[in-house]
């Protein structure tokens, strides 16, 4: 079952359950998918990789918005963003914890032959592709920087 089909089925369930917050989040995901399909010019659907990128981007937007609302002390809007984020994360692959992230990054660092901070771009390119959807870009960047600055790896 494609992501679009899962979303449509979940929209029906949310409508029956009268869960407005979940319904709003699901409709926003469906909207992203439909926009991506029309950009391609066809109705064949979009690839799983594109779906993952869309969901990751939507999750990042919700996370950043929630942070801004928290700083502005707008708890009502922050809760809306966090509720939508929780729904979006249901469709993303499981996130790596910090330990697993470091292990995977060490493998990538050794594979690309990185030896210091000057190789950050080379490592980030590979890590961003391989860990897409499994870890936040900021977390990846911070961990790569820490690992490359610490030459004991």
UniProtKB/TrEMBL annotation:
It comes from the Bacteria. PANTHER family: ALTERED INHERITANCE OF MITOCHONDRIA PROTEIN 41, MITOCHONDRIAL. InterPro entries: Asn/Gln_tRNA_amidoTrase-B-like, GatB_Yqey_C_2, YqeY/Aim41, YqeY/Aim41_N. SUPFAM superfamilies: GatB/YqeY motif. This is Aspartyl-tRNA amidotransferase subunit B. Pfam families: YqeY.
